[in-house]
Amino acid sequence: MRLVSFTTKSGQKSYGTVEGDIVLDAGAVLKERFSDLRAVLEKNAVQELAGKGEAIALTEVTLLPPIGNPEKILCVGLNYTSHIEETGRPRPAQPALFTRYPSSLIGHDQPLIRPKASHEFDYEGELVVIIGKSGRHISKDDAMSHVAGYTCMNEGSIRDYQIHTSQFWPGKSFEASGSIGPWIVTADEITDITQETVTTRINGEIVQQARFDDLAFSIPEIIAYISTVITLIPGDVIATGTPGGVGKFRKPQLYLVPGMVAEVEITGIGALINSVADE
């Protein structure tokens, strides 16, 4: 099942499912029970969305980040062999974690914003895990049972701000600098996520591509590590890292500029597409 959050032409926020080129507006039917997709996940009620709601053409809605109000957005840095090699840094002994905030992420088909403060605006195509079941001290063997589904992220990075100090946060949190979506594909739709592939294209040219079996830390390892520190809850967002090929380490460097189109496509999930505009 493909789960979406969206705004209708009348400006009403809702949620539902995608079937082909239509959205079923389940939120119009179920809003009194579930305010949004995060509430649906909290009640373990995803199956109740199936077939619910009026059909609306996908082109008639504006897609929002699938989980608009996550309690946590947690990101893993340096998590592909190819990206570790291009940075010249050693492989981390433990997952390198940092946070983002909801205001830093937009939805599919919305413009990524290059900030006034810097033009070192880089792309990072990533697989995102959406948590569906709460847990603390989750074992690696049990970790995948806590996954509700997957989506795509362009984890846009402002590189000079990222390296102002040893803390990544400033370069990862500029408003509307990243994107997520277009929808969540539920975990039951993906037989083996490690065999899927992420591809990033800038103006149609492939700049990143990797299978998820190239992750330095696997999804179960990431979930187990994070849950040692903090309780994961439904709707939490975990971005699993980006492959080699980012703009900063290309020769010549390739940074995002207004007029470009960035696409992050993951097999079995779909394509997240965004233009680029100036603040």
Summarize the structure in words:
With 279 residues, the chain is mainly beta. It folds into two domains: 2-64, SH3 type barrels (Roll), CATH 2.30.30; 73-278, Alpha-Beta Complex (Fumarylacetoacetate hydrolase, domain 2). The protein has five helices and 19 strands. The chain has helices at 27-30, 37-42, 81-87, 159-162, 219-229, and strands at residues 2-7, 13-19, 22-25, 54-57, 62-64, 73-77, 96-99, 105-106, 112-114, 121-122, 125-131, 147-154, 157-158, 178-186, 197-202, 205-211, 237-239, 261-266, 270-278. The strands form three sheets. Strands 1, 2, 3, 4, 5, 6, 7, 8, 11, 12, 14 and 17 form a twelve-stranded mixed β-sheet that branches. The two termini are 35 Å apart. The mean pLDDT is 96.
Total helices: the number is 5
* Rg, Cα atoms, Å: 18 Å
Cα distance, first to last residue?
35 Å
**CATH architecture classification of the largest domain:** Alpha-Beta Complex
Count structural domains.
2
Q: Which runs of at least 5 residues are low in confidence (pLDDT < 50)?
A: none
